[in-house]
Amino acid sequence: MDTNQYLEMFIDESKEHLQSCNEHLLELEKNPQDLSIVNEIFRSAHTLKGMSATMGYEDIADLTHMMENVLDAIRNSKIPVTTEIFDVVLQAVDYLEEMVMDIASGGTGKKNVRELVESLNRIEAGGAVVTAAVVETAVSSVVEVNNQKAVLSYDDYEMTVINQSSDQGFNSFEMTVQLREDCVLKAARVFMVFGILEKVGEIVKSEPKVEQLENEDFGETFTVALITKENADVLKEKVLKVSEVASVTITVLTHDYLTDGKRAEDDKVVQAIETAIATQPEPAVVKEQGVQKGKRNTGVQSGNKTIRVNIDRLDILMNLFEELVIDRGRLQSIASELHNPELNETVERMTRVSGDLQSIILNMRMIPVETVFNRFPKMVRQLARDLDKKVSLEIIGAETELDRTVIDEIGDPLVHLIRNALDHGVESPAERLAKGKPEEGTVTLRAYHSGNHVFIELEDDGAGVNRDRVVAKAIANGIITEEMAKTMTDRQVAELILASGFSTAEKISDVSGRGVGLDVVKNTIESLGGYISIESTEGQGSLFQVQLPLTLSIISVMLVELEKEVYAIPLSSIIETAIIQTSDILNAHNQKVIDFRGNIVPLVYLKEIFEMPEQHDESGGFQSVVIVRKGERLAGLVVDSFIGQQEIVLKSLGNYLQNVFAISGATILGNGQVALIVDCNSLIK
């Protein structure tokens, strides 16, 4: 069966099942008595095992099977739930994720999981979890007992293949080849032996692994399991003809031999491990918590009528629709010039239909932010342990949807924010108790819609931003002066930590201290047309708020004119447009400002920003102003005139013009003219 056609589906579904395992494992750690959670994990693992075996990825199937055995022992109350067991099972899930990602990148999904399998075997047997070093020592001792003869062990899948082959008239052999001690090119001799065997049968497995044999990472002996129609004497004769082969030993693989040999080998390994860990301390058992109140949803879910669509197809569809939007604008322009009733009616109908089509296409590209949020619980758990802190992560609004292009970019900035919150924000348990706080800190990650934006907030109940420390560091780095520091608000001081190269860490660690991270967060978010703000109360905690546009492809703008040139200002940044008298413009601290509804708003003259020579003044004592907002801060953009609102397609300026100040892109108008899109965030200080 050709499985390549199912590869993409296998990868997608494997990622979903592994993510489900991660989520439920973290939930089980908090509620170790809730066996319904174990059943959910078992179900995901069982499905993954079946898919992997069908696709031919035996390594994934074998490792999942071992994990399944441990889960089965837990749900049948044969073994207690401990922190060490969680660590091993989570490591198994990590390994499985790495193997799936290797397959996704064109690999074979192979990984050395021997030590992990031994740990899982030990857990299943009801013994203590041993370290990798202890397991390696124990297994090595078994090899010595066997006089360095590589004895193969077979999983259920391999035993089934061998038994079925025997039923169909094939011979199953275990062949051990001994090379001469003075053999120079061991890998070449192995290659020649494999070439002979592959011509007459199929090699099931080898010990050592093929990679070790190719790298000559073995002694003089290697063993292969072979299914063939040839008899043992013929095979032995052919292999002995290879130069520098000292001896060949062949054992017939019968059902009894496989069963007894596997049991005997397992007994030796278990006995060796038990001897090695005789002096190991017993693992600490996690204090059991009560089962959560309320019923879990165990009902059968109704099937969703959905299909999987390659994202590249959606990108192509979006690009085609963007061209349609440009042509729609051109038709609207022509219709307004010709004043033809029938043409106007047709264009209006086309506008309505294309608007509905636009909504459908944009919704197809929307993805819940939980696809990003799901990775954080396990990360917080591990990071808290590394920092010797107690932290709980609360996620709110994970169902909130964002455009896929935004989702792809927002993951890394959120990782930096969470690491910053755990390292700099949340205090150690001793510090929290001394301040009268709970020993366990809380980090809350929430997402919600507001207008045409999505807000993502990260809040912690930690130490907050130390104003004096941040100001001193900013002055030392030349970011601000002492005079500036005296007039800065707490919010402005807090946002200094977003400056490039800024860090208050006293020493460099794996988590922080190099002065990179939050400046990358700021740059990435602003490149997406969003912004980040910080609210912090010293001793109580901090709130990082990220505002992002719902989509980056098609946006609504206000078209304005500057010296006969058209510019576009995104409506998402606009509060209001106004025409003011020139006499109402005031001066404050060498800055022209206006009084806008009781707020002092600084004016930004776009002609000066874009260095446009003023050819003539037709203001007649009035100024056209666009009031824009960035968080709580406002600014008034002075333009020549307003043209009107329009939906436009956002186009990149390309690599050569990517750093143009205050310009985020361009668009093509209905008349074919190019209009630059103003980046309001960069104009508001």
Short description, anyone?
By secondary structure, this protein is of the alpha+beta class.
Topology of helices and strands:
Blueprint: H1 7-30, H2 35-55, H3 58-75, H4 83-104, H5 114-124, H6 132-145, H7 156-167, E1 171-179, H8 186-200, E2 201-207, H9 210-214, E3 221-228, H10 232-240, E4 245-252, H11 255-276, H12 311-338, H13 341-364, E5 366-368, H14 370-373, H15 376-386, E6 391-396, E7 401-403, H16 404-425, H17 429-434, E8 441-450, E9 453-460, H18 467-476, H19 482-487, H20 490-494, H21 518-527, E10 531-537, E11 541-549, E12 554-562, E13 565-570, E14 574-581, E15 586-588, E16 591-596, E17 599-605, H22 606-609, E18 622-630, E19 633-639, E20 641-649, E21 663-668, E22 674-678
Parallel strand pairs: 6-8, 13-22, 17-19
Antiparallel strand pairs: 1-3, 1-4, 2-3, 5-7, 8-9, 9-11, 10-11, 12-13, 12-20, 14-18, 15-16, 16-17, 18-19, 21-22
Structure description:
- The protein has 685 residues and is an alpha+beta fold.
- It has 5 domains: 4-129, Four Helix Bundle (Hemerythrin (Met), subunit A) (Up-down Bundle), CATH 1.20.120.160; 156-255, Alpha-Beta Plaits; 311-365; 368-549, Heat Shock Protein 90; 554-683, OB fold (Dihydrolipoamide Acetyltransferase, E2P) (Beta Barrel), CATH 2.40.50.
- 44% of the residues lie in helices and 22% in strands.
- The protein is built from 22 helices and 22 strands.
- It has a 6-stranded mixed sheet with strand order 14-18-19-17-16-15. The chain has a 5-stranded mixed sheet with strand order 6-8-9-11-10. It has a 5-stranded mixed sheet with strand order 20-12-13-22-21.
- Strand 8 and strand 9 (453-460) form a beta hairpin.
- The protein starts with 6 loop residues before the first helix and ends in a 7-residue tail after the last strand.
- Residues 128-150 and 262-304 have low confidence and may be disordered.
